[in-house]
Inverse folding.
């Protein structure tokens, strides 16, 4: 259709363009007003987007590349709640967003909105992608976003960070909440049957990590406090999967039935010799080639473990582990 667009800018000028350009000539805080008749014509709002952090490639048929507009606040969004499908405000100094009851909204792009401290997401059944990388969120409630598939919530600047998942997770394939050592919540990993990418390093996580998705490709969970990890059956043959669990407190690591695991860094943990030997034996049993294994900072392998390490090396694996070398005593 042909909606009626009415812009009134802070300097008194007006426009009927869906993407207007105005030069105020000087810095200052101004209120700009938009009225669209009917509001149902507004399905996308873009005040900043460049495709960062896995977003769609910018373009006229997706989300256009728009430089930040230095927006600090938006009011009246409830007018487009039933219709808006895409919101993009990356790099803007906006402090709060309320998307409660935005039933058609499927994409939120708030990359590097470093002042964004509050986002409300009640009754957002269509939301699939949520990008809040490098914001200032302390509490993120995802319990009413059942279709969420892609979460980018790394590096919050808040002093605490809690995520309420509720029962959300059935559609999740990508989770990145890395570099949040202030996090106070854990991950309900049994709620993510389709999870492919799990990026949660330096996230103040502890206890046992037991992932069950058979779609997993990459698990990056270093610099946490896990004491056990179970990936049994997560990595089918031919997938070339990666697990980084270095600098945790692991005493147990289960990689049984994981022939697709080719890159494993479990260095700087607390695995004893039996556990180290078990990892080497298990990886050797898969008869795979060209992988990478780092077990340094754990107990040294036994002669049996060393034999398995040699088998791996002969098949092109790079194997690092803690070897104890003792010089014989000499009398002079």
């Amino acid at each position: 259709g042909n909606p009626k667009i009415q812009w009134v800018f802070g300097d008194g000028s007006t426009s009927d363009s869906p993407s207007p350009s105005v030069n105020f000539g000087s810095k200052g805080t101004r209120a700009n007003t938009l009225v669209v008749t009917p509001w149902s014509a507004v399905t996308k709002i873009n005040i900043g987007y460049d495709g960062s952090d896995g977003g769609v490639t910018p373009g006229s048929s997706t989300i256009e590349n728009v430089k930040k507009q230095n927006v600090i606040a938006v009011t009246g969004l409830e007018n487009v709640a039933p219709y808006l499908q895409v919101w993009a405000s990356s790099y803007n100094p906006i402090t709060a967003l309320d998307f409660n009851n935005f039933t058609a909204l499927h994409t939120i792009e708030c990359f590097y909105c470093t002042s964004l401290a509050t986002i409300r997401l009640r009754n957002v059944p269509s939301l699939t992608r949520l990008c809040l990388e490098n914001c200032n969120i302390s509490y993120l409630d995802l319990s009413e976003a059942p279709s969420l598939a892609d979460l980018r919530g790394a590096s919050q600047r808040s002093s605490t960070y809690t995520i309420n998942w509720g029962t959300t997770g059935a559609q999740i394939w990508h989770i990145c909440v890395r570099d949040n050592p202030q996090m106070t919540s854990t991950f309900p990993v049994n709620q993510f049957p389709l999870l492919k990418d799990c990026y949660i390093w330096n996230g103040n996580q502890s206890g046992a990590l037991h992932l069950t998705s058979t779609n997993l490709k990459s698990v990056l969970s270093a610099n946490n406090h896990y004491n056990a990890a179970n990936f049994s059956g997560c990595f089918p043959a031919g997938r070339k999967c990666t697990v980084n669990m270095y600098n945790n407190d692991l005493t147990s690591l289960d990689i049984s039935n994981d022939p697709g695991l080719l890159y494993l860094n479990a260095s700087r943990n607390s695995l004893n010799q039996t556990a180290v030997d078990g990892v080497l034996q298990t990886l050797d049993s898969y008869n795979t080639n060209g992988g990478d294994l780092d077990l340094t900072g754990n107990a040294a392998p036994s002669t049996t473990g060393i034999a398995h390490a040699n088998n791996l090396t002969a098949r092109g694996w790079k194997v690092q582990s803690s070897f104890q070398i003792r010089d014989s005593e000499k009398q002079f």
In short: Helices lie at 273-285, 303-314.
